[in-house]
Amino acid sequence: MKSAPPIERLVAALRRLPGIGEKSATRLAFFLLGAPERLVRELAEAIARLKQEIVLCEVCFDLTEASPCPICQSETRDGSLVCVVEEPADLAAIERSEQFSGRYHVLGGVLAPIDGVGPDDLRIGQLEDRVRNGEITEVILATNPTAEGDATAHYIGDRLRETGVKLSRIAYGLPLGGDIEYADHVTIGLSMQHRRGID
User: Fold this and answer.
1) pLDDT digit of tens for each residue in the chain (199 aa)?
2) What is the span of the domain harbouring residue 116?
């Protein structure tokens, strides 16, 4: 038996979110139906305001309330060091580590010729302009360890090599707390290739 049309519509909308299947969407819909009116209104307002109040930073292309973003405006960040990431979520993950004090450049994706995504569809030209016009001395390529991420990193490296800027790539390896026996062969191989000395 089908649910009432408003519930079905909400379930269908929730299923469009990443990682939300039929069961999760149905559970969320019934939770919201039984939740206090205040909570539902706050959620609806937060979603509506998200698209109205978030803009792209004109410098790094991160999502922010005001452009330039706080990271690009910060005088305590090292402007000579730029970390290149695929998406704003990657930037947020690196920031959570509290191990990077430079600035960022968000590409807006990766090269994927099969999907019709070429260099002109990404913010590679803007990165090149930043390197040529600014104080940047090192570019860290932090694209994901996928075929597309690696291809994008190599392409950017080739484009920036003539500028004389130092180029580096994030290291790959085994996660902390992980067991070697459960790791895939590619991860183990990369861990061996990128090994470092013990102090």
Assistant:
1) 577 888 999 999 999 999 999 999 999 999 999 999 999 999 999 999 998 999 999 999 999 999 999 999 999 999 999 999 999 999 999 999 888 999 999 999 999 999 999 999 999 999 999 999 879 999 999 999 888 999 999 999 999 999 999 999 988 777 777 777 777 887 788 777 777 776 6
2) 77-169
| Residue 174 domain flag | no
Find the radius of gyration of the CA atoms of the chain: 21
Q: Are 118 and 111 in contact (CB under 8 A)?
A: yes
Q: Is residue 32 in some structural domain?
A: yes
Q: Is residue 162, in this structure, part of any structural domain at all?
A: yes
Sign of CA dihedral 71, 138, 161, 188: negative
Does some domain include residue 10?
Answer: yes
Q: Six-digit token pair at 10?
A: 């909400």
Residues 73, 77, 80, 83, CA torsion sign: negative
Same domain for 85 and 162, yes or no, is yes
Find the length of the chain.
199
Threshold 0.85, pTM exceeds = no
